[in-house]
């Protein structure tokens, strides 16, 4: 069964315009072409879609259902065409847990002021590529390297590693902690998107781990005191919680913040975004 978009457009035009003659005018074709196209659609579907009299054209019961579906299909196709043609008027930047930390508001404001012709959208997608693989974004903020065969990336800044503990945890009374302070605790990690693994510790002093896949769940478990966490500084900026204390881990390496994109299909605004973010991180 082959149903073509032009057949669906023809059906909708007949119903909207009320006659074959008016539908032909709206579509810019002959009345005979409208009749042939509708007949072909009815043959393809194996059912009658319209009742035709000398005065009016009305949909059959099946025709009403087909017209409703046709409208949705045509709207989706029109949206697809608009996205393909004007996609560069939008820039979608994905992130998994935290966007750009304290730089997020400044980045959004500066972008809107300097590049009003390209609308910026931040999209949270908790996946390893922060939405790139899923097609949810054009660029992605990631904090660990991606597959270099498919993606390009640029480091735009560095962030400290922070420990997250319950507000009444003894470690919360300290100004900073060391990795050794966490070795006897249970560490809550996100293996898909997170930057923390037990490999940060020596083999003989690694903490136990439990796994989560969502930052809200991570915060809830840590605030209850059952686990501790370690994360990029941006998480503390984006998710302050009364029941959570964030403390710097002074002997842990900082985390590189990368902006990543598809190697074979970079957005035209990619380099501009890289430069602005690098400036923001450099200036603190």
Architecture overview:
The protein has 284 residues and is α/β, with parallel strands linked by helices. It is 36% helix and 22% strand. The protein has 8 helices and 12 strands. Helix 5 links the parallel strand 3 (90-95) and strand 4. The model has no long low-confidence stretch (mean pLDDT 92).
Q: What order do the helices and strands come in, and which of them pair?
A:
Elements: H1 5-17, H2 20-27, H3 31-45, E1 50-52, E2 57-59, H4 61-86, E3 90-95, H5 104-114, E4 119-124, E5 139-142, E6 151-159, E7 161-166, E8 186-189, E9 208-211, H6 215-223, E10 229-232, H7 233-238, E11 244-248, E12 255-262, H8 270-282
Parallel strand pairs: 3-4, 3-5, 8-9
Antiparallel strand pairs: 1-2, 5-12, 6-12, 7-10, 7-11
Enumerate the spans where pLDDT stays under 50 for 5 or more consecutive residues.
Answer: none
Over the alpha carbons, how many angstroms does the gyration radius reach? 28 Å
Strand composition percent: 15-25%
**Mean pLDDT score:** 92
Percent helix among the residues?
Answer: 25-40%
Q: Which outline best applies?
A: elongated
SS field, number of helical segments: 8
Output the strand order for the largest sheet: 4-3-5-12-6
Per DSSP E runs of 2 or more residues, the count of β-strands stands at 12
H/E series: HHHEEHEHEEEEEEHEHEEH
The rounded distance between the terminal residues' Cα atoms is 61 Å
- Sheet/helix structural class: alpha/beta
Main sheet record: 5 strands, mixed
